[in-house]
Design a protein that fits this description.
heterodimer, A: about 270 residues, mainly alpha, MetI-like fold, 2 domains, about 0% strand, B: about 325 residues, two-stranded antiparallel sheet, about 65% helix, globular, disordered C terminus, MetI-like_sf (chain A), transmembrane (chain A), transport (chain A)
Chain lengths: ~270, ~325
């Protein structure tokens, strides 16, 4: 009994601590510019200033940033789904020379800190004339990503091989088996990878920061960071935009919660 | 975390070995993994080698490139107070953040594991902050910490504490960053929860019969059984502490007085603010080596405190 009470008390306390910053963001976004300067702070604004959202959004080219963010997010997701699944299929379904070693290398690349490749990548993309375009953010996703390859390979290993063999007897080649049998059966893994990739790309700040310097190419995160630096900006507007760009990840999380929660835990345990 | 068992995972249904692969068939698997091989060469291995080479050169963005041998590394240690400052900031951050993060996550996971009602709600709440962008997180916390109108100090004042001006106080800015980072790491609760759930109930029942109390059960059963999860999380948090950059860039810009000047920010500044590409490469490689050494040490010592089920080298009791 006491144990349950302690459990509930601490869970409720921590939930408050975890939710309070969100609440504070939304409540600030809806306040008038005078209200945010009141002390003690007001939890609920007198009048809800919904117009703050539109005003803040339109004060900067956030629509353009949105377009860039969408472009990058959609294209990288397509890229990852195609490339990572091909590679995962290769690792999961064939025995070939160097396979285990190469797979170790795939896993090992997850350990490499991004700082190590950041500078040469910048120079490489600069040499290619890609700096200040969205290409550095998009193109690499068409070559697979270690974590997604790992996730998909683990998933393919759970698909019975008899299915492949039956198809092979019917005359299907390896690529057909991949496209017609493995891919449709791999839906849960594909959804999970899409969700992770959308969240990661949408939220990415360092990639855009390093590779983009022209405002017309900015993504939303970069636009928001720059918005903060402008000195006539009020907290109301800042919180309004922060909230708006957090809506897609939050929505996606609610929609795909089961996939994310089950799997992020599962992956770590393996 | 047992990488070897993951890698050499063999399919039980592999009895039908295909005949010796020849010609095109021999190439097929390589064609499938070709995208990764190309990407690895172009975006990982190539850049890594290039970066290592650059670290032995004086390499400005514009102008002459000159070979300087180990000078970059030597200068870092002997002639650059910022190097030591940023290294110290990062270590301080890690020393505060890593244990707190593990402790809170394990604690909350244990509370969730008490068969509470609404555990789905609590899980969602703890996960939520890790879903939004680091930029959004920084924006929110900059406002929460605001010296004049911040809600944080207001809440503290309710319990009689006069909070500092968090982000502008040399002794508190780093603590502020630890707290903000903890907020974004609630997802770790779920990893621990999964670990806890995999502990068989029978172990606790047996312990109860033998007269073990709650404290004993925690130290003799719970802790050893989740030790692999702790190991995994420990490594991940150490690595993330050394790569901490966006929060510093956005919350404090490394200040006040470089009190939140993280190592990653130091390397970033050398590269993209001062354009000392060679020097910054040396910075990055030094960090890479530190991460490798730390990871290696954690793994090396893990045999002493990590308990793997079905591992006969140690008895369950003493683990």
């Amino acid at each position: 009994m006491i144990r349950k009470t302690i459990a509930y008390a601490s869970l409720i306390l921590f939930s408050f601590l975890f939710l309070a910053p969100f609440y504070w963001m939304i409540s600030t976004a809806l306040k008038s510019d005078d209200e945010i300067l009141q002390y003690p702070p007001k939890w609920i604004p007198d009048v809800l200033h919904w117009e703050n959202f539109g005003n803040a959004w339109m004060s900067q080219p956030f629509n353009l940033y949105l377009e860039n963010s969408l472009t990058v997010t959609i294209l990288t997701t397509i890229g990852q789904l195609i490339s990572s699944s091909l590679v995962a299929y290769g690792f999961a379904r064939f025995t070939f020379k160097g396979r285990d070693f190469l797979f170790m290398v795939v896993l090992a690349t997850m350990m490499i800190p991004w700082e190590v490749t950041m500078i040469p990548l910048y120079m490489e993309f600069n040499y290619l004339g890609w700096i200040n375009t969205l290409k550095p953010l998009i193109v690499p996703s068409f070559f697979g990503s270690a974590f997604y390859i790992f996730l998909m390979r683990q998933f393919i290993l759970t698909i019975p091989r008899e299915l492949d063999e039956a198809a092979r007897i019917d005359g299907a080649g390896s690529f057909q088996i991949y496209a017609r049998i493995i891919m449709p059966l791999m839906m849960p893994a594909l959804i999970l990878v899409s969700v992770f990739n959308i969240l990661g790309t949408w939220n990415d700040y360092l990639g855009p920061l390093i590779f983009l310097n022209d405002q017309s190419q900015y993504t939303l995160t970069l636009g928001l960071a720059q918005f903060k630096g402008m000195y006539e900006v009020e907290a109301t507007g800042l919180m309004a935009v922060t909230f708006l760009i957090s809506i897609p990840p939050l929505l996606l999380f609610f929609l795909a919660q089961r996939y994310i929660v089950d799997n992020s835990a599962g992956v770590a345990i393996k | 975390m047992n990488i070897e068992s993951v890698v050499t995972h063999k399919q039980p249904a592999m009895t039908v070995q295909p005949k010796k692969l020849k010609g095109r068939a021999f190439l097929t698997p390589y064609l499938f993994i070709l995208p990764w091989i190309l990407g690895f060469l172009a975006f990982t291995l190539g850049p890594m080698i290039f970066s290592l080479v650059m670290s032995f050169f004086d390499w400005p963005v514009v102008g002459e490139v000159t070979f300087v041998g180990l000078d970059n590394y030597v200068n870092m240690f002997t002639d650059d107070p910022l190097f030591w400052q940023s290294l110290w900031v990062t270590i301080k951050f890690a020393l505060l953040f890593v244990p707190l993060n593990l402790f809170i996550a394990l604690f909350l996971a244990m509370m969730l594991n008490q068969k509470v009602k609404g555990s789905g709600f609590f899980r969602t709440v703890f996960y939520l902050p890790s879903v939004i962008s680091g930029v959004a997180l920084a924006m929110i916390w900059a406002w929460v910490y605001d010296g004049e109108y911040g809600i944080f100090n207001y809440l503290l004042s309710l319990v009689g504490i006069t909070g500092p001006d968090w982000l502008n106080d040399t002794s508190w800015a780093l603590v502020a960053m630890v707290i903000a980072s903890l907020w974004g790491q609630g997802s770790m609760v779920l990893i621990f929860l999964a670990g806890l759930k995999s502990i068989p109930e029978s172990l606790y029942e047996a312990a109860s019969i033998d007269g073990a109390g709650a404290v004993q059960k925690f130290f003799r059963i719970t802790l050893p059984m989740v030790s692999p999860t702790i190991l995994f999380n420990l490594i991940m948090t150490i690595i993330s502490a050394f790569q901490q950059l966006s929060l510093a860039l956005l919350l404090t810009g490394g200040g006040p007085l470089q009190s939140t000047y993280f190592y990653a920010m130091y390397a970033y500044d050398n590269a993209f603010k001062y354009f000392k590409m060679g020097y910054a490469s040396a910075n990055s490689w030094f960090m890479f080596v530190i991460i490798l050494v730390l990871t290696f040490l954690v793994f090396k010592t893990s045999g002493k405190w990590v308990y793997y089920e079905g591992d006969n080298r140690r008895g369950g009791e003493e683990a």
